[in-house]
Amino acid sequence: QVQLVESGGGLVQPGGSLRLSCAASGSIFGIYAMGWYRQAPGKQRDLVARITSDGSTNYADSVKGRFTISRDNAKNTVYLQMNSLKPEDTAVYYCKGGITTRNGFRQDYWGKGTLVTVSS
Questions:
Q1: What is the predicted pLDDT for the residue at 75?
Q2: Which of 8, 1, 2 lies closest to 94 in space, CA to CA?
Q3: Are residues 118 and 12 in contact, defined by beta-carbon separation less than 8 angstroms?
Q4: What are phi and psi of 88, to 5 degrees?
Q5: Which of 15, 42, 46, 76 is the most buried (most CB within 10 A)?
Q6: Do residues 48 and 35 make contact, with C-beta atoms less than 8 angstroms apart?
Q7: Cβ-contact 82, 8 below 8 angstroms
Q8: Strand 114-118 vs strand 10-12: parallel, antiparallel, or unpaired?
Q9: How wide is the angle at C-alpha 52 spanned by C-alphas 50 and 57, nearest 5°?
């Protein structure tokens, strides 16, 4: 069994910064990609940023230049550094990992989410 646990959300003023973390644990053989998604009230869940096992990244246009995704493969952890936050960044942020378990099954796993609120 695999678990993804996010942390680092909270309330921040516009222009401020937050750093989200997502740690994967359990019966993990390998992680080929990890990503951050967000869902604002009444809206669909959208990709924010994604990073593959070789370090390749892609970002939503709305966060390019402000957010940075990184990962620590030894710790099975992915981070999202969010700078210059705007009220429209307010959402629940979810971590997703594309994981191969020790018994050879490969599937996507989701965390339960962490709330980011950008408000003065």
A1: 94
A2: 8
A3: yes
A4: -75, -5
A5: 76
A6: yes
A7: no
A8: parallel
A9: 50
Going by C-alpha positions, the residue among 26, 23, 9, 19 that lies closest to residue 78 is 23
Give me the amino acid identity at 14.
P
**Tokens representing residue 52 in the block:** 């593959």
Count, residues in the chain: 120
Segment 80-100 shows an average pLDDT of 97
Give the number of other Cβ atoms within 10 Å of residue 6's Cβ. 22
Q: Residue 114 in contact with residue 6, Cβ under 8 Å?
A: yes
pLDDT digits (tens, 9 = 90+) for 35-57: 999 999 999 999 999 999 999 99
Structure tokens at 115: 């709330």
Interstrand relation of 91-101 and 114-118 (parallel, antiparallel or unpaired): antiparallel
Identify the DSSP state of 75: G
Cβ 106 vs Cβ 100: under 8 Å: yes
